[in-house]
Design brief:
The structure is a homodimer. Chain A is built from one helix and 15 strands. With about 170 residues, chain A is mainly beta. The N terminus of chain A is likely disordered.
Chain lengths: ~170, ~170
């Protein structure tokens, strides 16, 4: 990185919303663009999905390279690379307190990971096709998953147990 | 805003991940902190939930003030204030293409909004208690909602029709 864009006051204008503009791009636009580049460069294939942690301190990215990667937003540092899926990662979500990450994959599994350590906690098996969306409930105790197999399944996060399956 | 933190090269260090640090706080940390302040200042009561659009160009915020607000990330500009809920907004989510916003509220409804115009498209009624989570499926055609009434409901986004309800 050169000093380009790091110039002084003359290039910095306040916008009505309060965020600063630097040479036609605001600081946050540039920072988020850089973060996207860092994330993309960290995967060996295309990134399919990204999600911010509730505190915006971490970003989780899923990729065709079959990994989920956890990044520190402030520095762009790779915290953990979560390996285990055997197909592209199609969906990721953080739990409300940011402790857990759920990922859904073309391999038909939902995997639950400990965000702080990158450890695989549970692999949730039952879907017959790609898991295209995952979401925690407000307490973080349950995970819902939607799949191209036309079911929505509800799982207990603590045990990985399947609670319900809805045919769509 | 004063010139504090806008200083020159001497205060700017590259970190391994590639994002720049300014006086102990990286640009993105500062920008996200400022964005949070802009969002908080725009609501008349506490913010309960925030979500980025898939492209990271918009942020949706929900609040005890019963509104959902849509913000331009790059400038912190308020785009739309979505009024209609009669209880605190507990959950918000963008559709995968960013065109729709779903919000869940203590008033028991899920509301679907057009992100570009702020127009209310559907108010989804059926939950008997706070709607604590909302999520779109990958195609954006369905919305799942979880509630303190111990049900998960699945809705058709285009029509607002209830497709399924799961007792938890």
């Amino acid at each position: 990185m050169t000093g380009e864009g790091e110039a002084g006051e003359s290039l910095v204008r306040s916008r009505p919303g309060g965020l600063r503009e630097l040479q036609g791009e605001t600081q946050i636009e540039r920072a988020l663009r850089e973060l996207r580049l860092v994330v993309a460069a960290g995967h060996s294939n295309s990134v399919t999905v990204v999600a911010f942690s509730p505190s915006w301190e971490m970003v989780a990215s899923g990729s065709y390279d079959r990994t989920v990667k956890l990044w520190e937003v402030g520095t762009g540092r790779l915290l953990h690379s979560l390996a285990g899926h055997t197909g592209k990662v199609a969906s990721v979500a953080f739990s409300p307190n940011g402790d857990l990450v759920a990922s859904g994959s073309r391999d038909g599994t939902v995997k639950l990971w400990e965000a702080g350590t990158g450890r695989l906690l549970h692999s949730l098996e039952g879907h017959m096709n790609e898991v295209s969306s995952v979401a925690f409930n407000a307490s973080g105790e349950m995970v819902a998953s939607g799949s191209y197999d036309h079911t929505v399944k509800l799982w207990e996060a603590g045990t990985g147990r399947l609670l319900y399956s809805l045919e769509g």
